[in-house]
């Protein structure tokens, strides 16, 4: 895998970590894969504070996706940049179409742990390129997850992706997490992703930058560190995480935006 693809091990570790502790997110598949893969993280990328953050982020995405599917149970789900994530198992699918999408080498690794079915497919693609959507039927609405992805896309690349999705489906709902501009600048020198060789990322302060010419409209900003999840920590960890990583402090570096097609 290239260095960007190796960043998938950071959230995988975080989900396995919180799942083993029995807090925030239950993810036995992450525990299994982390144990089997034996990938060595170092420095800040294996911080328990980052692990809590990654667990919370995934849990927030899961809650949102369940709500979207309840409102639109016939929508297709696209998880772009799926890595080795087990959302397909955590959220579950019976009759909806679910597509997990990532680079070819990531999908090859993923196929060690997941099997395709009549309603579940894994797609090898760089979504910045044309043509990848041709393999996804356009006769439905779509719910799109972009978790831990947007910061690796230039603004023009991200806008193209949103535009492609908007044009392809009847309607689209998207949830994505983004670095702020400040966080992107700081990431060149101090970020856990540096520990796997990545130092080129991009940030967004105003979601309106992604509205123009994309067919998408900003809906709402979500909280990535909900109080109910922070409260699952105990003692010093709860106080420290809340003060250093939660709420307004978190928002200075990280945002979570929801969009829908117009």
Which descriptors would you attach to this protein?
single chain, 262 residues, alpha/beta, 7-stranded mixed sheet, 40% helix
List the topology elements.
Layout: H1 3-6, H2 9-21, H3 28-37, H4 48-71, E1 76-80, H5 87-91, E2 98-102, H6 104-110, E3 120-124, E4 142-146, H7 155-168, E5 172-179, H8 181-187, E6 216-221, H9 227-230, H10 235-244, H11 247-253, E7 254-261
Parallel strand pairs: 1-2, 1-4, 2-3, 4-5
Antiparallel strand pairs: 5-7, 6-7
Quick structural gist:
The protein is of the alpha/beta class and 262 residues long. It has eleven helices and seven strands.
Structure description:
The protein has helices at residues 3-6, 9-21, 28-37, 48-71, 87-91, 104-110, 155-168, 181-187, 227-230, 235-244, 247-253, and strands at residues 76-80, 98-102, 120-124, 142-146, 172-179, 216-221, 254-261. With 262 residues, the chain is an alpha/beta fold. A seven-stranded mixed beta sheet has the order 3-2-1-4-5-7-6. α2 packs across α4 (48-71). The N and C termini lie far apart (37 Å).
């Amino acid at each position: 895998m290239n260095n960007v693809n190796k960043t998938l091990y950071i959230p995988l570790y975080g989900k396995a970590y919180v799942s083993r502790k029995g807090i925030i997110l239950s993810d036995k598949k992450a525990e299994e894969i982390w144990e089997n893969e034996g990938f060595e993280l170092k420095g800040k990328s294996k911080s328990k504070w980052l692990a809590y953050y990654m667990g919370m982020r995934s849990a927030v995405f899961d809650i949102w996706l369940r709500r979207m599917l309840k409102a639109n149970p016939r929508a297709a789900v696209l998880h772009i940049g799926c890595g080795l994530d087990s959302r397909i198992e955590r959220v579950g699918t019976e009759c909806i179409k679910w597509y997990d999408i990532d680079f070819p080498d990531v999908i090859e690794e993923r196929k060690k742990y997941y099997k395709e079915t009549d309603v579940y497919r894994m797609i090898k693609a760089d979504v910045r390129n044309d043509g990848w959507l041709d393999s996804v039927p356009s006769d439905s609405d779509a719910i799109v997850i972009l978790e831990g992805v947007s910061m690796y896309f230039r603004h023009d690349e991200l806008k193209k992706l949103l535009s492609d999705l908007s044009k392809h489906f009847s309607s689209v709902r998207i949830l994505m997490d983004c670095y702020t501009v400040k966080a992107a600048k700081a990431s060149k020198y101090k970020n856990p992703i540096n520990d796997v060789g990545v130092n080129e990322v991009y940030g967004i302060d105003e979601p309106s930058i992604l509205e123009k010419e994309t067919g998408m409209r900003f809906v709402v900003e979500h909280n990535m560190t909900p109080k109910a999840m922070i409260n699952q920590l105990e003692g010093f960890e709860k106080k420290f995480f809340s003060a250093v990583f939660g709420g307004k402090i978190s928002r200075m570096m990280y945002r979570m935006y929801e969009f829908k097609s117009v």
